[in-house]
Amino acid sequence: MSAFKELVFSGVQPTGNLHLGNYLGAIKRFVEMQARDAQCLYCVVDMHAITLWQDPAALKGQIREVTAAFLAAGIDPKRSIVFNQSQVPQHAELAWIFNCVARLGWLNRMTQFKDKAGKDRENASVGLYAYPVLMAADILAYRATHVPVGEDQKQHLELTRDIAQKFNNDFSDSIAAHGHDAGDGFFPVTEPLIGGPAARVMSLRDGTKKMSKSDASDNSRINLTDDADAIAAKVRKAKTDPDALPSEVAGLSGRPEADNLVGIFAALKDVSREDVLRDYGGAQFSAFKGALVELAVETLAPLGAEMKRLVADPAEIDAVLADGAERAEAIAAPTLDAVKDIVGFVRRTRLHAVR
Ligand code: TYM
């Protein structure tokens, strides 16, 4: 298989309003992973997006916009594999098999389903309920070992580990009979990579709420397509408390807005909260926000401009996605063949070599 030591997989939903949390918690870290001895796959998860209603007239544009964000942030589509989920049918196929491995009780515990379904749970789509199972399929179709995500995905990654372990366990005899290592199991137990100062970026209007695409207030988030003026205005309006910044990280506890702005600053600058407070401990928010505006604009304005340039050429983006889908399928297809053998399906022998 691949000559790389690690296989990294992660995904972003094309549901519009990509924001600073998506960038600092995920996309920026995807770029950093390219420096490791790893094959990286970065997926625009359009099948996840439709678990909530998406306007068909807008969805293609949203898919291309996330792809543009990947590229503008520095993901190299030659080194990494960039594609959209629906172009690689193995995701849906494996998700079905995993639907028969995962237990209802496991899914009933998923907090994100409860949040997204809201009060009217009876009216939520079955897809929204099964969302984390498709996520496990995304990861395990490539037998990925490392998954960089924001903190809000922790529970979903634990479920992925549970599904991998139950599959390895339920089918251990068959796995061995088909010549796979029964000791290690067929699927790896994936390592979630959650961390850094921006694993959970909070709303600029309320430091106790996650920065989110679906917040009604546009001032709660910095969108990746915001221009310099919008970024500056949102940072200046961000909620703070009346005290100066503390000189130690411990002094941020109980001050969610201060903690959030310091975390954002640290992540943008690639330093720790400690480093930021060494420089700004004792400073008033007015001064700190000035420095944050400068840093945020310096990083994000060129990113937004590059995204706009890239989406203006959809054919170029579609070519990246098509090339990525072919390379992704070349990894996922043999996994699915093996899974079908392990489960006991009669599989169509290939009359023609896989393209
Ligand atoms: P999505 O599109 O909701 O989020 C994409 C990534 O952004 C991170 N994120 C944040 N990080 C820090 N602070 C925030 N406020 C914030 N908001 C979002 C998310 O944690 C995520 O890493 N279910 C996934 C998509 C997915 C996936 C996968 C991820 C589908 N299949 C397989 C990894 C592996 C999601 O929520 O995307």
SSE blueprint and pairings:
Blueprint: E1 6-12, H1 20-33, E2 38-44, H2 46-49, H3 56-73, E3 81-84, H4 90-99, H5 104-108, H6 111-117, H7 126-140, E4 146-148, H8 154-170, H9 172-177, E5 191-193, H10 228-237, H11 256-269, H12 273-280, H13 285-311, H14 314-343
Parallel strand pairs: 1-2, 2-3, 4-5
Helix pairs in contact: 3-13, 4-7, 4-14, 7-8, 10-13, 11-12, 11-13
The chain binds tryptophanyl-5'AMP.
Tryptophanyl-5'AMP (TYM) binds next to strand 1, helix 1 and helix 7.
Tag the structure with descriptive keywords.
single chain; 355 residues; mainly alpha; Rossmann fold; Tyrosyl-Transfer RNA Synthetase; 2 domains; three-stranded parallel β-sheet; two-stranded parallel sheet; 14 helices; 7% strand; binds tryptophanyl-5'AMP
**What would CATH call the homologous superfamily of the largest domain?**
HUPs
Helix content: 40-55%
Ligand inventory reads: tryptophanyl-5'AMP
Shape, per Cα inertia axes: globular
Number of strands: 5
Largest sheet: 3 strands, parallel
Task: Classify the secondary structure makeup into a structural class.
Answer: mainly alpha
Oligomer: single chain
Task: Calculate the mean pLDDT score and round it.
Answer: 96
CATH class of the largest domain: Alpha Beta
